[in-house]
Write a structure and sequence with these properties.
Number of strands: 8
Order of helices and strands: EHEHEHEHEHEEHEHHHHHH
Structural class: alpha/beta
CATH class of the largest domain: Alpha Beta
Mean pLDDT: 90
Low-confidence stretches: 289-294
Strand order of the largest sheet: 3-2-1-4-5-6-7-8
Helix content: 40-55%
CATH architecture of the largest domain: 3-Layer(aba) Sandwich
Shape: elongated
Strand content: 5-15%
Largest sheet: 8 strands, mixed
Distance between the termini: 44 Å
């Protein structure tokens, strides 16, 4: 699953004396564990996870050699760095289990969508908290993680965060926690938009007459090359689009059809819908209510 190289990132923090505790060992947490072990940033003996199902616990132990227990509080008590990676729906119950178990010197990192640092701090009785949002490509070490640290997180602890998140790909620190919620709607949910667009383009190619296996490869290679070109060129996307759009040509005709279908507006609406849902999850955790007032998207112009 994990494909990044094994080299340690430049300036990596020394984690050899740390115990990483992981509460919630789903796909993203497993990707982080795999990346850290693969790069030699941690040894398997330094990782303690919790999972209620014996089958999953045995799978993690056999795959990574880590310790897996059923008690979330036991993990918290052992951890120098505690990673919260549970689903938002079960987070309130998990936080009740962890309250009083987190040691004062422990660094808490949350990858739970919609879990604000204020809510986590209040429920855990703990102040050194990092809130982050990785995305799906982290599973192959090609993700991007936007993160925010509370003022109580020290500079050495921030270095540890950068090292941990580098195991998933690119890490970007922000000073405004609201930008983590924004990132949830852009980079966190972004692969969903990319996969849907990819699927749609493949189906269109099949409709034209390509065999499905050839359509899939044609689309994936086209998108991969386009993204790599955009990165290498450093040009604005509009300039790149203009580069391939000849007057009266096929690209111009295709773009006109996309504009008639309100393509840009639909993408913007999708991002705002994801952002509103993130804020609803925040409100649910902070206030115990199922929803909260939603921000209005910016007016045109």
């Amino acid at each position: 699953m994990y494909q990044a190289d094994q080299a340690q990132p430049e300036g990596a923090a020394d984690l050899t004396s740390c115990t990483l505790g992981v509460v919630g060992t789903g796909v993203m947490a497993e990707a982080m564990i795999a990346g850290l072990l693969h790069r030699g940033l941690l040894s398997s003996s330094q990782v303690v996870c919790s999972h209620p199902r014996k089958e999953r616990a045995r799978e993690l132990e056999e795959r990574f050699g880590v310790t897996v227990v059923a008690d979330n509080a036991e993990v918290a008590r052992a951890a120098d760095i505690l990673l919260l990676a549970v689903k938002p729906q079960v987070l309130p119950r998990v936080l009740r289990q962890l309250a009083g178990a987190v040691r004062p010197e422990t660094l808490v990192i949350s990858i739970v969508a919609g879990a604000s640092s204020a809510a986590l701090s209040a429920r855990l009785g703990h102040r050194a908290i990092v809130r982050t949002m990785p995305n799906t490509p982290a599973q192959i070490g090609a993700g991007v993680s936007v993160w925010f640290a509370t003022p109580e997180v020290s500079s050495p602890a921030k270095s540890q965060v950068r090292t941990l998140l580098s195991a998933l790909g690119t890490e970007l620190e922000v000073e405004d926690e609201r930008q983590v919620a924004m990132a949830t709607a852009v980079s966190g949910t972004g692969p969903t938009y990319a996969f849907l667009f990819t699927e749609s383009l493949v189906e269109a190619a099949v409709h034209l007459g390509f065999p499905r296996h050839l359509a899939r490869r044609l689309v994936l290679e086209t998108l991969k090359g386009s993204i790599e070109f955009a990165i290498e060129s450093g040009e604005h996307p509009a300039q790149l689009r203009d580069m391939v759009t000849s007057p009266g040509g096929t690209s111009a005709e295709a773009l006109a059809a996309l504009e008639r279908g309100r393509f840009r507006t639909v993408i913007g609406d999708a991002v705002w819908a994801a952002f509103r849902r993130t804020l609803q999850l925040e409100a649910s955790l902070e206030e115990g209510s199922p929803s909260s007032p939603s921000p209005a998207p910016p007016s045109p112009g």
